[in-house]
Every structure is written in C-alpha cells, then in structure tokens.
Amino acid sequence: TNHTTTNRGHKPMVHDQFMKSEYQRKRYWGRGMVGWKPFESVQPNSGHQSLAQLEQMGKLGVYFEDQPEFYDEEGLELDWPFSSGQRKVSLITQNVDTLHRRAGSRDIVELHGTSGKVKCMSCGTFRDRYDFHEELERINQEWLEAAMAVTEKDDMRPDGDAAVHTDSYDEVLVPPCTECGSFVKPDVVFFGDSVPKSRVAMCEAAVSNCDGLFVVGSSLAVHSAFRHVRAACKRGTPVAILNVGETRAEVEQLPVLKIEAPAGSTLESLVQYLETNAEQATTNARTDKVNSQ
After folding, report:
1. Whole-prediction pTM value?
2. 112 tagged catalytic
3. Residue 286's pLDDT band (boundaries 50, 70, 90)?
4. Which of 112, 271, 77 is nearest to 199 (CA)?
C-alpha cells in the first residue's frame, strides 16, 4: 500500500531541513500538534481488515531463511542471536500510520518506519510518540489553543501535518531527548532520506522467494516500493496490481496483471469468496467421508 504525503500543494518535510534547522523542527512539531490527533484517530478500513484476514487464512506470506543483515539497524542488533532461523513477510507497506498492524496484520515490513515512535538523533533512545505529544501539548498550551482557533478541517494533511495559519513558530517549545537532551525525530523516513538497508534486504529476500506479488492501492510512484515490483518482473514472478488509476508499472510497460477497481470492496469480495469456497470444501469433505463409510 502507498503512503501519500502530498496534498493540494503541500510540501512534506525534507530530511536535511529537519536535521539542520531548529526552526524547521519547531515548524514541524507546531504543525504536528494540530494535525497529529486527527491523523491518529483514523481507523483501519475494509482494505486493511481484508488484508489481515487474507494473511490469517494463509493466502499471504512467504517464508525464507533469516539473515543477520536483516538486523543491521539500531535497536535490532541484539535480536539476531534469538532468531529461529526462519523469517516470514506477508506485507510490505510504505504507510507509517500503523493501520495495518491495528487491523491485525502481523508479518509486516514498514519501509518508511512508523509514526508511533520518536527517536533521539544523538543517542538513539526511542520514546512513545503519544507520551511525547502529551508533553509537547502541555508546554505549548497557549500556542496550541491559538493555532487551533485558526485551523479548519480542510487544513489537515494526510501525514499528521496541518496547515497552521501563523506568522512564526519561534515560540514553539520542543521537548528534548529524556536521556541526553538532544533533539528527537519521528521514526519515519522523510523525503530525501534513505530506507534502512536492513529493510531493503528483507524486502528483496521476500520478493525473490515469493511465488507472486500483489500490489494494493499504490501508484508505485515512489522508488522504494517500485524497485521491488520491477525486480519481481525481472525474475519472472507474476505481479498483480489492484488500483484505481495508472501505475508506474504500466507506464514502464512491465508485464503485470492490472485490476482497475477500488481496493476495499474488491478485497472484501475476495475474502468472502475464499471463505465460501473453504466452507463448501469442508462440507464436501464431510459428505465424501460419510459416503465412504
């Protein structure tokens, strides 16, 4: 699935701007104070839920040999010695909103990270974003009340951002890291940054071992996802795309099966079809057993 951060001319945060400019960080967190709660209040839709059901039914997912390179990321190094030797991936997503996890999907690679955590850019300490935002709002209560008063529903952005009508963000106070006092960043990949090599390696292993790739609700405009579709096609792995509108795979004339239909209702129908077939197969098996007796 695809994570879209552009909306009506909205310019998403660029990694270097956030890292190098204190004012840009104030601007990011000031806008985030207004946009974060509406963003987090969104619930999984029928598409998210259907994908979770397909995984639970055993229709999604590939097993492959676990590798130490999959753990070459800060905070994961100590997990490798406890690996079972096998890894499973059912879903690769660019979304940072955790909706797939909340819907019940389990074996996920979140390419661009997750918005539910913040990470210190000096010592690497993680902090729950809900806890961070509670402090952020508490120490900026007056500023937030003034910003909310001039912000409308149409000003909300799809990535937890909001177009706040203010002349300056100089007065915004940003909580530092609780361990070392440096600044924190959402644990997501901003524009201009790179997806961690460990996640790329895990996706490459999953794609090279699967017997089919199913792309849902993505235009594949972002290279971090498109690269895996292109790799699958190069290997001769069947690729099906469920999306409304042309995708990058079609523009580049890759050999894919395109299903031009809305994701949610189509996936719901697929789950119902598979459940009906499974029930019918169970009934037939019971009938055959009775007849054989």
Report:
1. 0.85
2. yes
3. low
4. 112
